[in-house]
Amino acid sequence: MTHFFDRIPKIRYEGPDCTSDYAYRHYDPDAVVLGKRLEDQLRFAVAWWHSFAWPGGDPFGGATFERPWFGDTMAHAKLKADAAFEMFDLLGVPFFCFHDADVRPEGASFAESVRNLEEIVDYIGQKMAGQRTRLLWGTANLFSHRRFMAGAATNPDPNVFAYAAATVKSCMDATHRLGGENYVLWGGREGYETLLNTDLTREAEQAGRFLQMVVDYKHKIGFKGTILVEPKPQEPSKHQYDYDVASVYGFLKRFGLEGEVKVNIEQGHAILAGHSFEHEIALAASLGLFGSIDMNRNDYQSGWDTDQFPDSVPEMARAYYEILRADGFTTGGTNFDAKLRRQSLDPEDLILAHVGAMDVCARAFKAAAALYEDGALEAARAARYAGWNDPANRTMLQGATLEEISDRVLRDGIDPKPRSGRQERLENLWNRFV
């Protein structure tokens, strides 16, 4: 026991009229929505890095948080794990996610770092045996240490490539041992600062080979989870190769991996790429790549990734509607890749940030589910494309030649007139539910 959360009661669903801070108003894990428990629809996860490892710094100032587990020893790492599972129990979350550097101290050598990881994985496994919280996904931190300043898989130094590969192997082993349902690769520095010293072709080939090795190792060890790539356009690099979902798809196609790898989409990264969250989810689903999401938000007055907890029901409803259209999560889930503000110092702040975020997501999901179940929006979508159901029109996509189509236009006197897209009507329909 850490006693860090001693003053905080276990969070339970008490309904929308509840006035207590320490309760869920909209997230009832056992409520059945579209045939599944809400917990199984949303699959909430807590991010180990922001919740327990982040010290509260920003580009202009150092740490503001004081936590009893901050330190570089295995004793500190185990105390951090104790605090994490105390928080998981208070919130009743089904999942968590971690990087290797979040859970273990850096060793004096790679071998020592691996030993530290293996020891803490054993400890986390013991904690999991006594609780219901499971591992949604694991990943490797290939961006914080100075050795990765020029990338990991794309680094010009082959020794860094080798070190990164060995690190990923150790993290995949850890994820597999803990029963993780996915393994994520985030290319935090897989990009460039300037083209003056960058060979784009070489770096792409290195990244492609790296991911092929990850997929091969997944099958070798019998890992049944999903390999996920997380897109991000820039920051810390000027340009990152996994810019957005479309860029990731092109990369996967180039290296023959589109059937093996899916995407973990973050709301904040979608915004940085100039897209909406729902666009990236819808595109991933269209391409057969949708896997999981990191739920957070950016400050729209800031040009960087602020990783704030979600607070907008309409925004989140758009995202969950597209997830429903993609048939929901399978191995993926809703990971809160979000951190407290630097002035939110208290243990209560960490708990209540997650309580509010889970309520926002639950309320948004239920609104999206009601609209999806109503069917009016999907009926309007189908009606817009109904002309393609005509056999003569289907043939245009099934082998008709340009000459044959031209002859048909001339023969039948085809002279199409524009038809309304009815956008405002559909927005009004949407707003009746959200």
TrEMBL record:
Subcellular location: Cytoplasm
Cofactor note: Binds 2 magnesium ions per subunit.
Catalysed transformations (reactions): alpha-D-xylose = alpha-D-xylulofuranose
Cofactor(s) needed by this chain: Mg(2+)
Signal peptide stretch: none
InterPro entries reported in the protein's UniProt record: Xyl_isomerase-like_sf (IPR036237), Xylose_isom_bac (IPR013452), Xylose_isomerase (IPR001998)
Keyword terms of this UniProt record: Carbohydrate metabolism, Cytoplasm, Isomerase, Magnesium, Metal-binding, Xylose metabolism
Annotated active site: H99, D102
EC primary class: isomerase
Chief location of this protein within or outside the cell: cytoplasm
Record: residues binding Mg(2+) 1: E230, E266, D294, D337
This enzyme's EC code(s): 5.3.1.5
Residue sites binding Mg(2+) 2 per the record: E266, H269, D305, D307
Sequence similarity: Belongs to the xylose isomerase family.
Oligomer status and interactors: Homotetramer.
Name of the protein in its database record: Xylose isomerase
